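#structure-requests
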Amino acid sequence: MSRMWPYLWYPVTMTLAIGGFAALLAAGAPTAVASYVPVFLAGIAIVGLERRFPEKSQWQPRAEDIRADVAFLAVTQVALPRALVLVAVVALSTWSHGRALIPIWPQQWPLGAQILVMLLIVDCVRYWLHRACHHYLKLWRLHEVHHSPELLYVLNVGRFHPLEQALHFLVDTLPFMLVGVGPDVIAGYFVVYSVNGFFQHCNIKIHYGWLNYLVGSAETHRWHHARDPKTAACNFGNTTIVWDLIFGTFHLPPRQTIEDIGILDKNYPRGFLGQMGAPFR
């Protein structure tokens, strides 16, 4: 069993999170509660796994890393987009549900099928946006914030500049509001996206096996955070890796791990406020 656990952390946690979301919805819990409670509990579990089964001891965060990442989580992941998603997006998608401006969304499909379709569409658009962020200098200046840490652990998932978060909103939320996606679908996508993102950036001794060819895994995403830009030009997928497989950017060398991650600029600001202004230097 000790050899099996690294293969079970991800599927077990993801299954419990999705099951918890479905159970809370069935019990009549508000959509926000049904989505945030499983994500919060999954995050706590992943933090515990990092402390017990770390992949690399040198990726243990320092106090300054934790302060910066907590600030990013609070401002760019919670206060800025998440509060808006909780209030504005859910409210507007509820308003537009059934009377969409572009009525093409299959609202009659089962909830799980709608979430899967949304996930695949979002990841396709985000895949190309992500590639653009690594190709065009002005976009890279924003995205560089996310790649600046020289370690990977669960809180890195929230390190995004607010302007890049706004771009994400424009491609992965607003279009779905316009076509009439219901709030439960958006909330379900949020659960899967968030839990997968926690694992994607985790410092856990973890193995995905065949799931490496289905989801955006920690094993593939670590190569994307390589300091060498040529090495990092791979595995752009967020929740799923299928678009990397289709468009030829999948990279997972057998029996190899990446050691040197971060960015080329060794003098890049490390604190929250410094990184807020770094893209405009």
